[in-house]
Amino acid sequence: MNKFYSTLAAIAVLTTGNLLAQDVTVLSNSMDATSAFDCSYDVKDADKTILLNGSSATQIFTACTDGKLLEVSLDIKGLNDRGTYTVEVRSMNGEVLDIARFKKEQVLDGKVSLPMQTHVKAGSRYMLNISAEIGYDLNLRAKLGPMGTLTLDGTPYRGQLAGKFGFKNVEASTLSNDSGRASDGSGDDTIIPLNKSANGLCNTEVYKNTGRIASTGETVAQTFTACANGFLNQASVRVQHIDGDFVGRFSVRDSHNNILVAQNISARNVKDGVLVVPMHIKVRKGFTYTIGVKSIRGTRLAIFSNNDIADALGTCSFNGAKLDVNMCFSALIKKNPENDTPSTIIEPTLKVTAFPNPFENELGIRIDGIEEGKVIVQLIDFAGNVLRSDLINIDPDNKVISFDTDDIDEVGFYSLRVVHGDDVTHTTVIKH
Question: Which CATH class is domain 3-174?
């Protein structure tokens, strides 16, 4: 079978599933010999256009029968002559069940119709993920409607993709691994929540894995609850695969979606299968935070996951669609040494100003908040390599240090770390 057509078909059908749940009046159960499908779903009267360019659309759908998704037809308004577009069918664990690609020559009269062979189970939810590379437009048609099943690059969209999706009954005994779970959770395939308190640290962690979540441009995000008042010193993610030329973005947000940390990452950040990002941000016990990882420039990343929902430590999402798994991650918090009330969290006394920022051949650093004392100043890349380091004596007449950065060729984000006793600050700087 031509996988270009196979995947595309999956797309259409998948989209149908969730549509089924939202508008059963459009669902038809056709059992006569003239129909290729035992149940199908149409989303007509499209009134919106969705532009993808270096982005992706994810549609959640529910299968209407035990069997197969046989055909998907998507309404397309336009696409680039040279573009190749990727369509994935995923379980709600984030596992890829089918993948295919299509080009403009496969689009006829504004539609792309492709055969599929994706096993599905009645009542189970799946995801259809369609992505376009940077520089190659793909205009999908959509119908305005309720929110909850369609996201664009992680942002909820009011409506659903337009197209036709067809399913065929198959005896349940012949179905394969499309129950939407990577494991039954038995044996060692469990989430291990660790709240360690040694040395003034606590660690919230999901370690053991039962599957993986692959991403090529989509954001994989995980929420967690801070185990103490203090500072989040390090966040890490267990990686199953990463391209050698991988580049991406790592972020931490609070419950109001405010960005607390946002920085570039690369394959150099991964050591022994773990993506480690140091930081120093204030957190409060019992408050919810979100770790986000996104690949860019078409590079690929696969993150380990665990599907033991009973022991889940938060929620995991793929491109904004909530999954039935947790990401394998760790959030290491240095606890406030005084007591565990939010009002007494110790704030850094150091005040660091970097100039110019962005910088080119020289970076200046001014240190305030202390009158005198020894201070360590380090410029670090996000793989943890110390590029510059100096020890200076601060006094009222000496609060500025400069680094020659002419030999730092790679543009991007760097961390400026300043240490004074137990007081540590991290400031993000940009090399142009």
Answer: mainly beta
